[in-house]
Structure formats: C-alpha cells, structure tokens
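Practice problem 4.
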C-alpha cells in the first residue's frame, strides 16, 4: 500500500475558556473547549476524503489546523511522510503552497478593495509561478503575471478572463466568487485542497455545477481533496471515503458506498434519516436524536453521543450530571414537579463524575432516598440500568484547610489595612476580619471544590504588599507632619523603625481573623451533624475506542 499523502494521528485542539482573575483564583481557570479530541485519519493521493458532521463538531478547526491557522494542542500531522505539526515560519510558508484552503464564505474570503484579478496575482507575486519541474519562479514582468492569471481564470471557467480581471467581488455572483476563490487556490498547484463547505453558501441551482467543476479540476491536476460538509447527500456525490464527526471525535469512517448502504453508528443513521426523501411512498418513521448537542467544555464521558442515542447501553458512559438532566426534564411537567418537590430542584444536586449528591436534613433522608429510587425506576431505560447504587451517607465535610485558609486570608486583609490609619484602626479591621472569615468559611461547605491553593498565596502576597504600602504611607505622613524633607532616602532610612513597631498591632489583627475562622469551623462541624447526603452512583463505563467493523472503523460499544 502506498504512503498516504496526509496522515493525522490523535489530533487534539483545545481552546482555553477565558475567565476573570477572581474566577481563576477560585478555580475553574483550566476549563477548555474540546474542539478536536483524538482524531485520526489518513488521505491517499488523488482521493476525495469527506469530513461530515453537524455545525460545531470540529470540522473547520481541523481544516485550519492543517494549514497552520490554528496550533494543535497535541497529536501529529504528517504530510508526504514529514512531520508538519508545528512548522516554523519558513516551513509554514512552503507548506501553504502544498496545502490550500477553500473557505465556506467566498465573499468574506475576498477583499472588497482589491479586484479579483489582483487577488490571484498577489498570490503568484508572493509565492512565484509554478514551473514544469515543480520549482517556483518569480514573474518576469507584470504582463507575464497578468497572462498567468488569465490562464488560471480560463481553467476555472471565468471567460473571457480579461472581462473578469478588473471586476470587484461585489460585481460577481456567488458562483463566480467561488470560482475566483478556487482560482486563487489552483494558481499555486497544491497537492491537497481543503474544501470547507465550498457550496454551502450557494443556491441549489448552481451547487451541482460547482461540484462538477471541483471534480473536473481534480481530474485535470491530479488533486487530493479533504471535503468538509454537513450534507451527507453532497458527500455521497463527491467523496471516496467519509468520516462522520460528532463533538470533536470521529465516530465512523469508511467507504462512502458502504456507509450509505449500511450505516453502523447510531449517529450516522440519524444523519441519513435527516436527508429529505422526495417520494412520499418511500418515507418511513424517522428516529432522530433527542435533546441538544452537549457543551464541548464538559463533554460527556464514554461515548459522546450516548445522552442523545436511541440505542444507548448502560455502559455507554452515564454519569452524575445525566441524573440532573433527568430531573430537569421531569420538572418541565408541573404535575411531576409538585409530586417530586421533596427531591429538590436540579440545582440542589452536585455532580462529580460518576456520583451525584444532595444534602438533606437528617429527618428527611429516608423520604428523599425513596423518592429518588422511585424516579429512577419510573424513568427506566439504559440510564436507570447504569445506576450502581442509591444510598444515604454522612454529608461530605467541607475542606477544613480551605475554610481556615479563607478565614486566614480575611485576617491578612484586615491586618494589611491597619497601617493606612493610626492607632486603634488595626483592631477595628481585625474585628471586620472575624466577620469576613466567618461568612466566607461558612460558604465553603457548598463550594469547597472551587477552592484552590492560589487564593491563599494571593492573600499572603496582598498582605505583604498592603502592610508595606501602609507602613510607607503612615511613615511618609508622619515625616511630613514633623517637617522632615520627604524623600526616598529619608523614608527608607526611617522604615526599620516603623517595621519594629508594627508587628504587635498586625499580630493582634491576624489573631482576630484566625479566631473568626475557628468559630466558622466550629459552626460548620455542628451543621454537619444535622445533615446527610442522598447519593446516586453510576457504573463505570466500558472503555471506548475505534473498532474495525467489516470495511470501516466505528467507535461504538454496540460492536
């Protein structure tokens, strides 16, 4: 078997979710959008490989990664057997002569201030004219450059070329603009063209003509296509092999003919059933996915399609948040919401991977446990079968270290502020620190998982900074009142005196804060004795990976 032209191995592209400074310190700053998550495929020379999936599944991200517009998080991209995953600037320039991208929106891809002839000429002016032996040479003159553009325009069907050279994008139709974009790509004679939904913006009347035009270019120049689309009917018309993507992963991959004749993955079947059938006599009942596409920041465990799959198994990857989704769905009915009010609103449940729990009063634990068992039994299906245990246990104690840390941070803030005012102010801020420490540490019981060691470090740094600023400010004011010359030398010379006098007041302020944290911790311990947790635990999912089924690769536990 010949070496593939393009070989993508375990490609992952994650995008960080921006969070504010305070949110990052409290936790959650490492949240990422899993745009592409472990994609592997290869493309043979002169093959048309289709990448099919609904909007947001990661198709365009893969396209931009291949041409260097997006940096991959991990994985490998081999082109002609060479690693081009993270090319340097010069290698990327050369790579883009070999791999070109046709954008979905041809109008947005063309500059409105540049004629379409100049748009193509600029490409040849930058990269050079392709020669017979495969090298690139600089155009000898502007006339030679214009002749080369005319030749390209003639290849893509923009005739007469001289008529279109000085036209601007707003003077062309959608199909003509798409041909101009194709001309800009073909001018470089690339080996691989990534066509990102090239006909999605076009009318149905000219869509087939553009597809035939792309196939004609393939035959004429021995091109290889990565054809991206959300339309399986279009993919069937042009592709040799197809990969079906869902939420950043390839769920099925194989020859177009067999995938259409006998789809294996439930998501592939759903996509095929979404294709309209003109003949009413051939229409059958459609089984379409339920619900919405999950959030790519927190993708489902196991098979990513299982929350919407009509044939899901108990081992497909059910987890705690699926139980919360069940409660949300049942609460849409006013009758069920009133009957199951004792189970609490969905927001009262906290999910952590395979476990979901809710704190209840000790006297209500049996009633809530029985109601939850009744809800799961009534819901039935694979999710109910995936439940491993429903039990009542002691409520999880809060993170005592975090609770004391919050109180300590509050105390440090109080101690840091004392230097900004004189005398009795340190004690006032110490008392304020007690209240802050008590309140914040008491909130830890509901949000202990959001606590990070960074908040403690932040408190220490701000304390040291605050004490220093307070000391310098107080010292500067004192020197000014005494009539001394205010200068950096005088302030630094007198600073050891104020440092020697400050530890007493600051220590008392810190002591008040620690007292507040201790009182809060004692209060929380007392609360914990009155609270129990109702816990729903799910079975661990079976390992999921690509499997060879007949002549294709399928990622599904049904096989």
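Answer key:
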């Amino acid at each position: 078997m010949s070496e593939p032209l393009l070989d993508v191995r375990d490609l992952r592209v994650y995008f960080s979710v921006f969070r504010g400074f305070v949110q990052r310190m409290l936790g959650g700053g490492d949240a990422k959008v899993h745009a592409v998550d472990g994609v592997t495929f290869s493309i043979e020379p002169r093959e048309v490989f289709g990448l099919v999936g609904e909007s947001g599944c990661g198709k365009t991200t893969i396209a931009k990664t291949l041409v260097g517009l997006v940096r991959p998080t991990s994985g490998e991209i081999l082109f002609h057997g060479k690693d081009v995953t993270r090319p340097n600037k010069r290698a990327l320039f050369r790579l883009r002569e070999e791999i070109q991208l046709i954008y979905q929106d041809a109008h947005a891809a063309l500059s409105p201030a540049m004629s379409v002839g100049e748009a193509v000429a600029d490409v040849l002016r930058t990269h050079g004219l392709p020669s017979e032996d495969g090298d690139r040479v600089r155009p000898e003159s502007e006339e030679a450059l214009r002749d080369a553009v005319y030749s390209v325009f003639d290849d893509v069907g923009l005739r007469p070329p001289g008529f279109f050279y000085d036209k601007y994008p707003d003077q062309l139709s959608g199909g003509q603009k798409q041909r101009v974009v194709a001309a800009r790509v073909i001018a470089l004679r690339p080996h691989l063209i990534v066509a990102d939904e090239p006909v999605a913006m076009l009318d149905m009347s000219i869509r087939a003509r553009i597809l035939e035009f792309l196939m004609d270019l393939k035959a004429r120049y021995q091109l290889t296509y990565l054809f991206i689309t959300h339309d399986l009917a279009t993919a069937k018309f042009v592709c040799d092999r197809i990969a079906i993507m869902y939420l950043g992963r390839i769920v099925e991959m194989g020859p177009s003919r067999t995938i259409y004749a006998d789809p294996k993955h439930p998501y592939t079947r759903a996509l095929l059933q979404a294709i309209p059938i003109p003949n009413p006599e051939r229409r059958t009942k459609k089984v379409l996915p339920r619900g919405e596409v999950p959030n790519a920041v927190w993708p489902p465990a196991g098979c990513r399609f299982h929350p919407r799959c009509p044939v899901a198994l108990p081992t497909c990857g059910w987890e705690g948040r699926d139980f919360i989704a069940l409660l949300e769905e049942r609460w849409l009915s006013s009758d069920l919401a009133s009957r199951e009010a004792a189970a609490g609103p969905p927001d009262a449940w906290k999910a952590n991977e395979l476990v979901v729990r809710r704190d209840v009063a000790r006297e209500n634990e049996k009633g809530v446990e029985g109601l939850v068992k009744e809800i799961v039994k009534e819901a039935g299906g694979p999710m109910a079968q995936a439940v491993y245990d429903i039990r009542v246990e002691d409520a999880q104690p809060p993170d005592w270290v975090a609770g004391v840390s919050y109180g300590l941070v509050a105390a440090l803030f109080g101690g840091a502020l004392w230097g900004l005012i004189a005398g009795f102010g340190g004690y006032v801020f110490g008392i304020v620190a007690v209240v802050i420490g008590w309140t914040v540490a008491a909130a830890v019981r509901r949000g202990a998982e959001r606590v990070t060691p960074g908040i403690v470090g932040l408190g220490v740094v701000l304390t040291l900074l605050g004490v220093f600023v307070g000391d310098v400010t107080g010292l500067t004011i004192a020197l000014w009142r005494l009539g001394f010359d205010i200068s950096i030398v005088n302030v630094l010379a007198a600073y050891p005196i104020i440092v020697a006098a400050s530890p007493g007041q600051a220590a008392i302020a810190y002591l008040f804060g620690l007292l507040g944290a201790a009182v809060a911790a004692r209060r929380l311990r007392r609360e914990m004795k009155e609270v129990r947790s109702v816990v729903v635990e799910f079975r661990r999912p079976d390992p999921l990976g690509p499997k060879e089924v007949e002549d294709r690769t399928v990622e599904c536990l049904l096989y």
